[in-house]
Amino acid sequence: MHNPLYKRLRNLPRDARDTLFLLVVIAWIIAPQTAHLPVWCSAMAAGVLVGRGWLAVQGHPLPRRRWLMALLLLATVGTYWSHKTMLGRDAGVTFAVVLLTLKTLEMRARRDAFVIFFLGFFTLLSNFFFSQSLPIAASMLIGLLGLLTALVNSHMPVGRPPLRQAAKTAGWMALLGAPIMAVLFMLFPRIAPLWGVPSDAMSGRSGLSASMKVGSIAELALDSSIAMRIRFEGTPPRQSALYFRGPVLSTFNGREWTPLRSAFPPRMQLPASVQVQGEPVRYQVTLEANNRPWLLVLDATPAKPDIVGYTASMTPELQWTVDRPMSDLVRYRAESYPTFTHGPARMVTGLQDYLDLPPGLNPRTLQLAMDMRRDPQWARADGAALVAAVMEQLRTGGYTYTLEPGVFGIHTADEFWFDRKQGFCEHIASSFVLLMRALDVPARVVTGYQGGEANPVDGFWTVRQSDAHAWAEVWIAGQGWVRVDPTSAVAPGRTGSFQRLAAPSNVFTQALGTVSPAFAVNLRAMWEAVNNRWNQWVLNYSQARQFELLRNLGFASPSWEDLTYVLIALVVGVSLLGAAWTLWERSRQDPWLRLLQLAARRLQAAGLVIPANTPPRQMATLLQNHAGTTEAHKQTIVGWLLRLEAWRYAPHNATPYARRTLATLQCEARQLPWPASKPSTPSTSP
Amino acid sequence: MAIRERLQKWFESRIAPRDCVTLTQRNVYILPTSAGWMMAFTLLVLLVASINYQLNLGYVLTFLLTGSAVIGMHVCHGTLRGLTMNLVAPDAHFAGASIPISVHLVSQRKSVRYGIGLALWGSDHWSWTDVPAQGHSTVQVACTPLPRGLHRVPTLTAETRFPLGTFRVWTVWRPAAQVLVYPAPEMHAPPLPAGEPRSGGATAVQRHTTGEFDGVRAYRRGDPLKLVVWKKVAKADELVSRDAQQVHRLELWLDLAHTGSTQSLEHRLSRLCAWVLMAQAQQLRYGLRLAAVEIAPDMGEAHKKACLQALALYAGS
Q: CB within 8 A of A500, min separation 6: which ones?
């Protein structure tokens, strides 16, 4: 407590102290998203904040405007260079952080400070683009309180009030504002996005989309938000067998995989043919709103999933689609057969679609395929043998799995097979399928989710966006379509019984694990359950939930208009209450004046003439001169009147019991020997 | 502009002048500031971002901020509501000097009222203060120099933006007290005029020949140095000579008629004011004659005040 640094911080001038506090709050807000910002942006933010803090502590002047303009220009160019655009979410977040930190170098007028606060609120929100987990929420609550504290502090112009005071005010405001927040949160209509969400909302994040661009994503952020939750009826299959089928992508233009655009008329295309065997797996899926028109089911699901409100249909490639995008949480039941055969047994014309290669691309991959075909070892090999050979190459050829493969050129498969030898599942699946097609084996890319984890507390399986996966299907004569997951050859941990997205283990959890493994497990399960609650109550609070609430309130068929009506009714009700309270407060009188008036009334009743606004001492004098009360009673009343006067006018510190005595005075007033009231108007007596 | 001024006049005339006001719902006004509109815009941006990216936590943040702002609005209004303002009657001042107006702020509330500013209505020079819980504080507002005469204390305004700066809560207060403004004393006034013979009874005056000095007068050119009262010089910073005989025969009259008729009235009053101060500093007996008004020769602080007041209120012949 007595080290020099602490002392120095304590004795900083107010300006410097306020600036330092604001800088710390800004750093706190930016810190969680540094992983998602370009490196230069994080470095610049840190540099500017530290530099600004140093200027504040040393009391040096702020840099000139032209330096700021130069920095801003540099940062704008950097933003454009990093994101290739200035629009959209990621560029917007980067730019907001840049503006926020640079603005700290230009805090001159009150308006500048406000710009900082409001950019700060926006940066606070941008954290939620990347994660809405409980820790981030708690951390951002602290950030919000910090910003509010700084804002309150900047409106205390006198002296050097302790920050604690501003923090208290901010905390109270947030606490009292919480009910308003709860009502708005529950009742504000959850409407669909006002305009198309900018395309980068999904790119660069794990998750599914209708197409798959290869090589254009430099960095994949694992998005740990939940894609769906599953409850199995009976024993769940092995985790490594949990392949949830999403869009099947069969047409490649060199950069992007899209659903099949067949070169053949419909009658020649492959029909949906699937034969199942054995016992089905039955399960219930709670699918998060994803704005996509498809369901996710385990392979293979021949029967229509049981879903309300949507019309589901199956494509020839076994994908289940619905008639419109699901903008809301949906729940459906499905039956899937892990053992199945799919597709024609013999080579048919329709399979030619799955041998198409983009012309002129990936020459080295084509050459590799040709070389293999010439090799006598493979000359007569069937599809299964070729698959095994390529998988062996993936396993032993020094290929690695990475989330940061960088941007690929136009020969994506060439770069993967020969140059970089690293990528994430999309690169691996795409390159694998291209090589198989070059080897004359029909192949396609399947996207979906793989794996998930069971929560021991409630038994639900959670599949996250980070479980999104791409794998391959190859057609083998006699077997039909067979699933091949080339990623498992590169990174066995990626698919299989490994923990996919291990909870970040820190020193604390490690220590806990070594001391008491059972306790650590319990703690984790508890944490998961809390998280689940959080997900269910806050993150998954959707229009369906709102309507459920309205139904409980007695609305037969709630619509979002009803939500608005309830909201308006609440606002009107609260306003009326406020108005009533104001009226009540206006009519309320100062308790001291009330006592004085009581005394005046009592004395007037006894025949004294008490002018309006007579102070207590004068009343006492009037009473002294009044005949008709015993001396002892007079003294009691006079004593009381003088105490009444002292309560109001004595110096504040002279009457430490001042607060208490008003109640005492009221008590005494009731017991005082007030002079008996005179019979009214003596003139009427005969 | 004229309409605005007239509106302001009209608004001002509606307020009853009082030296003590307790602020209530009726006389406290509230409007959002430009920062408040900026806050509203920020909230809108946050809401749109939450809707477009379907962020439930974004909704939580937006609505928590909204709730805090709504509470902030009430806190802001509560900072002024219930406050009692007392005007401390201002002293008289000379024209040309700025007049400090002291206001006593009394709060009955159990919590501190932060960031209350007072200023003249229409000016932008705020004096800020905090009013402690169930306590009081005093603020001084500098009033711009006023011309000579008796003036009503200018209309004051109290304002607060605490806690978030998104709302401006203010009140307009018209004090009833008046402030007297003396003429500004002339900077380099000529010396005091010569005394006049005592009216009615010059013959009755005894000639003192004892050589004792009975009074002092302002130094005149030609006075021998031994007549200068050095002690007084040190105090009054002005040369003062002993006056042996004339004091009993002559009276010092500061007369508007002696100030030179070529000057403007204000200038002449300024000179008289300077003379009054000079005479007071030299502890002379002096009288004041302003056309119809006449104040008999006397000495002392009360006499000076009476003279200055007469100068302040003199309306011309």
A: A451, A453, A464, A466, A467, A494
* pLDDT, tens only, A116-167: 999 999 999 999 988 888 899 999 999 999 999 999 999 988 888 889 999 9
Find out whether A230 and A435 touch, Cβ atoms under 8 Å.
no
Distance of CA A13 to the CA centre of its chain: 37
- Bridge partners (DSSP) of residue A472 are A445, A484
Cα distances (Å, whole numbers) of residue A32 to A140, A143, B186: 9, 11, 71
**Cα–Cα nearest to B26, from A578, A586, A591, A588:** A586
- Indicate the residue type of B125: H
Distance CA(A658)–CA(A647), nearest Å, equals 6
Q: Distance between CA A102 and CA A104 in Å, rounded? A: 5
Which candidate in B20, B63, B116 is best for mutational testing of the A interface (most A CBs within 10 A)? B63
Nearest Cα neighbor of A394 from A450, A359, A433 is: A433
Closest chain B residue to the Cα of A171, Cα to Cα: B68
pLDDT (mean) for B19-41: 90
Query: How many residue contacts between A and B have a Cβ separation below 8 Å?
Result: 152
Flag whether residue B162 sits within 8 Å of chain A, measured between CB atoms. Answer: yes
pTM of the predicted structure, to 2 decimals:
0.64
Strands in A455-549 per DSSP E: 461-464, 468-476, 480-484
Q: Which ranges constitute the DSSP H helices of A154-246?
A: 163-187
Q: How far separated are the first and last CA of chain A, in Å rounded?
A: 88
Which among B75, B61, B84 is positioned nearest to B30, based on CA atoms?
B75
ipTM of the complex: 0.78
CA distances, A226 to each of A136, A142, A539, B77 (Å): 15, 25, 10, 44
> Where are the extended beta strands (E) located within A180-302?
212-213, 226-233, 243-249, 251-252, 256-258, 274-277, 281-287, 297-298
Please give the Cα distance from A311 to A319 (Å, whole number).
14
